């Protein structure tokens, strides 16, 4: 079996939000992740001391504020590009979480992403369809995205989506904006959740070399690509 390298990437369009609102969303998200697995219990920034969840809105406000974009001349904040933050877990097998939020430029998306470890005890615990479905639900609850996937880099290389918003994976989230899509692959397990639906390609550990795992993903990718 190919050693898959898995990631989460959820996106949403322009949404002007205050620093406090973004920090509140992130604080709630981290707390929900911690309830899923202890791998999400503590985070550090720039190899500093690890902080236990909850990190607190005030601390996250400060960190997000340091992640703003500025003009080269005058160093004024480019407000429409929102706030950004990268965190790493303090577990033995490191997870990396990145957030860009409060973005209201039409040229870029808001994004929440997580890189998962591919081996080790944390990977064995987390890289399961039931656990990752809970992670996907936590992401939807916190960020109200338009589209998202939990998938592997190998799967992306095989399916070759023309854009991030056309990507399908092991677990795919489609908001209500995609409710008009019909005749989805029968192999997908569909679960309606607040704001949209989750589509799971397989309840087994995903393997991009398995044609049965890839088949519904290829079909869904084609459907989503037709929407772009």
User: If you compute it from the alpha carbons, what radius of gyration comes out, rounded to the nearest whole angstrom?
Assistant: 18 Å
Number of helices: 6
Instruction: Please state roughly what percent of the residues sit in beta strands, choosing from under 5%, 5-15%, 15-25%, 25-35%, 35-45% or over 45%.
Output: 15-25%
Quote the average pLDDT: 93
Based on helices, strands and strand pairing, what is the structural class? Answer: alpha+beta
Question: How is the main sheet built?
Answer: 10 strands, antiparallel
Element-level helix/strand string: EHEEHEEEHHEHEEEH
What number of structural domains do the residues give?
A: 1
Estimated helix fraction: 25-40%
Oligomer: single chain
- The total of beta strands comes to 10
Shape, principal axes of CA atoms:
globular
Low-confidence stretches: none
Spatial sequence of strands, sheet with the most strands: 3-2-4-5-6-1-7-8-10-9
Distance between the termini: 33 Å
Provide a descriptive summary of the structure in words.
With 228 residues, this protein is an alpha+beta fold. The protein has one domain. It is 31% helix and 23% strand. A 10-stranded antiparallel sheet has the order 3-2-4-5-6-1-7-8-10-9. A hairpin with a 6-residue loop joins strand 2 and strand 3 (51-52). Helix 1 crosses helix 2. The radius of gyration is 18 Å and the shape is globular. The two termini are 33 Å apart.
């Amino acid at each position: 079996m190919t050693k898959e390298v898995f990631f989460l990437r959820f996106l949403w369009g322009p949404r002007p939000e205050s620093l406090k609102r973004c920090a509140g969303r992130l604080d709630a998200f981290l707390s929900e992740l911690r309830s899923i697995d202890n791998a999400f219990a503590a985070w550090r920034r720039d190899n500093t001391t690890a902080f236990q969840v909850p990190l607190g809105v005030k601390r996250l406000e400060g960190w997000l504020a340091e992640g703003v974009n500025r003009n080269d001349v005058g160093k004024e904040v480019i407000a429409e590009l929102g706030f950004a933050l990268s965190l790493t877990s303090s577990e033995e097998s490191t997870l990396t979480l990145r957030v860009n939020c409060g973005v209201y430029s039409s040229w870029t998306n808001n994004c929440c992403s997580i890189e998962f470890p591919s081996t080790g005890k944390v990977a064995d615990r987390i890289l399961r369809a039931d656990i990752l479905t809970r992670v996907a639900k936590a992401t939807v609850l916190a960020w109200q995205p338009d589209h998202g996937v939990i998938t592997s880099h190998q799967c992306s290389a095989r399916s070759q989506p023309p854009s991030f918003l056309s990507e399908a994976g092991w677990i795919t989230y489609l908001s209500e904006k995609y409710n008009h899509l019909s005749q989805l692959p029968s192999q997908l397990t569909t679960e309606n959740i607040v704001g949209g639906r989750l589509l799971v390609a397989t309840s087994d550990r995903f393997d991009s070399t398995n044609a049965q795992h890839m088949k519904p993903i290829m079909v869904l990718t084609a459907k989503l690509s037709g929407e772009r």
